[in-house]
Amino acid sequence: MTSSDQPNPTPSAPRAGLAGAMATFRVPFFGIYWANSIFEFLAFGIQQTAKQWLITDLTASRTVLGLVGFIMGVIGLVVSPFAGVLSDRMSKRNLLVITRVFFLMILAV
Predict the structure, then answer these.
(1) DSSP 109
(2) Widest CA span of the chain, in angstroms?
(3) Nearest Cα to 106, choosing from 55, 58, 43, 52?
(4) Is residue 78 scored above 90 in pLDDT?
(5) Degrees (nearest 5) of the Cα angle 31, 36, 41?
(6) Rounded Cα distance, 74 and 13, in Å
């Protein structure tokens, strides 16, 4: 077997460990997208905590707090199948833009 018969390893072969994980940040704008996701997650968590705190402060009722959480969960269960169908039929880029703008509007209120 000659050296020309042997397959050459691909230069983009996945790397193991931390070096492989950090290689994704070489993709343009991925780091910005990742940082945005972190801040969005933190803002959403702060909003949920503030909402629960406000409900507890206004009503002092655990029942009302649980009812609001239950209603939010039911809304998620009802909307999820329709959102899944919509996400399968839409362009992924447009879907990301629309959902980011939607979450921005929710967090602004």
Answers:
(1) -
(2) 81
(3) 43
(4) yes
(5) 130
(6) 44
